[in-house]
Amino acid sequence: MFPPFVLLIFGVFMKKGLFLTFEGQDGCGKTTQINLLIEYLKNKGYEVVLTREPGCAGLGEKIRSLLLDYDGEVSSVCESFLFLADRAQNVDIIVRKNIEEGRIVISDRHTDSSLAYQGYGRQLDVDRIDMLNNIATSGLKPDLTYIFDIDVETSMARVGDKKDRIESAGKDFFDRVRNGYLEIAKKEPNRVKVINSVDSIENIHKQVVDLFVELEEKLLK
Ligand code: TYD
């Protein structure tokens, strides 16, 4: 824990807040870890805002329901654009504003979900999804992205029988999604950190905190 004067100096240097994203296959356990990190950050004196994709407050909730609850045939390109539309809304209405006001914004899923699920999973062109992500976010990048890696058998067992449209896509799809996430981490090792998600909640939380502290120290230098 930093003493208040260090946090003050940190605030001066930081000028703006931070943007953290949490990623991983369905059933990877990221929700538990998001809640623990938020508690840790608030105890440290940070103001934290949690958002999610799909489904940030307001219009995002309607896009989420279109994406997850519709049970007819869906074109992969249509699916991609709906996720991207939701992302633009999240970034423009919630993320950017809160970062500029000095808060730590945590997004439960963001650009890497489109790369992993629509690019690698649905086998659309990954470079094109990357370009569309940049349009949706106007180039805003997370300061740190956590990927919770887990084998597909365990993650599917955790999701159970009550699956939404995307969770019903099958094992081959989720093998590609997992592999996609690992590829993303290889391409951007500074921003993207992989955490083995088959471990105790406490051990995983410790790794999440250590990576955050590393980022804090980098920004202080
Ligand atoms: P959600 O219930 O929020 O899942 P989780 O709790 O695992 O985050 O559902 C979001 C689903 O949408 C999830 O299956 C991942 C998928 N998704 C994409 O396919 N592409 C995207 O760009 C995003 C943001 C999510």
Task: Describe this entry's structure for a reader.
- By secondary structure, the protein is an alpha/beta fold.
- The chain has one domain (19-220): 3-Layer(aba) Sandwich (Rossmann fold).
- The protein is built from nine helices and five strands; from the N terminus they run αβαβααβααβααβα.
- A five-stranded parallel β-sheet has the order 2-3-1-4-5, sandwiched between helices.
- The longest helix is centred in the middle third of the chain and has 25 residues, at 76-100.
- The two termini are 17 Å apart.
- The relative contact order is 0.19.
- Thymidine-5'-diphosphate (TYD) binds at residues 26, 53-54, 68, 83, 108-109, 113-114, 117-118, 166-167.
- Thymidine-5'-diphosphate binds next to helix 5.
Shape: globular
Output the CATH class name. Answer: Alpha Beta
CATH homology superfamily name:
P-loop containing nucleotide triphosphate hydrolases
Number of domains: 1
CATH fold topology? Rossmann fold
Between the first and last Cα atoms, what is the distance in angstroms? 17 Å
Structural topology:
Layout: H1 4-14, E1 18-24, H2 30-43, E2 48-52, H3 59-69, H4 76-100, E3 104-108, H5 111-121, H6 126-137, E4 144-149, H7 152-159, H8 171-187, E5 192-196, H9 201-220
Parallel strand pairs: 1-3, 1-4, 2-3, 4-5
The structure holds thymidine-5'-diphosphate.
